[in-house]
Specification:
By secondary structure, this protein is mainly beta. The chain is built from 2 helices and 9 strands; from the N terminus they run βββαββββββα. Strand 7 and strand 8 form a beta hairpin. The two termini are about 25 Å apart. The chain binds zinc ion.
């Protein structure tokens, strides 16, 4: 079977940046599974995997525009200390969860200031060219329930 809309694709992948640093990998854990054609993964990778089958191995390079987007400088702003929970230690790299206009967002503390911290609402991978080393483990037809939910159930997917 080949990866196409309505198919569940299971794969192992290692993600590195331009310098070769490993940003993420499935190799130490479960395979990663997604429902093809439903925008569950970044467009550049989904496009590259279209039509592939079990055993396919490849390196895929994804530009920021086909990945997590370019960095938006306006999504970096300073927030005063009182905007954070009093018991939350402010440190570099700390993640802050907040309600955004389109649902929950994750912000990262990128700088500490005298009165608070500078937060970055960009996705941590925004602006990065992504290098995926992928191996397709299985391609199967999605169940009716998975199609209704728009995502994968079971191993490597939603457990509910
Ligand atoms: Zn579901």
């Amino acid at each position: 079977m080949k990866a196409a809309s309505g198919m569940v694709v299971s794969m192992h992948y290692t993600l590195t940046d331009d310098s070769g640093e490993v940003l993420d990998s499935s190799r130490e854990g479960d395979v990663f599974s997604y429902l093809h054609g439903h925008g569950n993964i970044i467009p550049g990778l989904e496009k590259a995997l279209e039509g592939t089958a079990t055993g396919f191995k490849s390196k895929v390079t994804v530009a920021p525009t086909d990945g997590y987007g370019e960095k938006n400088p306006e999504a970096v702003f300073e927030a005063p200390r009182e905007h954070f929970p009093p018991d939350m230690p402010l440190e570099l790299g700390a993640r802050v969860y907040a309600d955004g206009p389109n649902g929950p967002i994750t912000l990262t503390v990128v700088k500490l200031t005298d009165t608070g911290a500078v937060l970055d609402a960009n996705h941590p991978l925004a602006g990065k060219t992504l290098h995926f080393d992928v191996e397709i483990i299985e391609v199967r037809t999605a169940t009716k329930e998975e199609m209704e939910h728009g995502h994968v159930h079971g191993e490597g997917g939603h457990q509910h």
